[in-house]
Each structure stands twice: as C-alpha cells, then as structure tokens.
C-alpha cells in the first residue's frame, strides 16, 4: 500500500506533482487510509506548491 508521505516525497524530490500522483492521493483519501504523519506531509506539499517549488502537472495541462 502506498502512503501519502511517499507520494509527497517523490513530488518534493522531483519538483513536480504528476497527474498519476494526484490520482494516487485521491485513492488514498477515498479509502480513508492515512494518519497524522501523512497529513503533515500533505501540508508540506501544499506549502511547497504555493511557494512554487513543486509544479502541478494537471494545472499545466489546463
């Protein structure tokens, strides 16, 4: 099972949140299978995205 923090780490490392990664996050949320550490990682991703350190592939496609 993939964890939110694993998806976030990949996005932070590459500087890109792919559409595939966004889909993985959606599945994890729909299964309600996450913990506080995952939520903290998600907040880090949100901050990195807002600061421009991580680009959302889905936003570039629009």
Structure report:
There is one protein chain. By secondary structure, this protein is mainly α. The chain has one domain. Helix content is 69%, strand content 6%. The protein has 4 helices and 2 strands. Helix 1 (4-14) packs parallel to helix 3.
Principal-axis shape equals globular
- C-alpha-based Rg, rounded: 11 Å
Instruction: Assign a percent range to the helix content.
Output: 55-70%
What's the helix-strand series?
HEHHEH
The quaternary structure here is single chain
Topology:
Blueprint: H1 4-14, E1 16-17, H2 19-30, H3 36-50, E2 55-56, H4 57-61
Parallel strand pairs: 1-2
Offer a concise description of the structure.
With 62 residues, the chain is mostly helical.
Give keywords.
6% strand; mainly alpha; two-stranded parallel ribbon; 62 residues; 4 helices
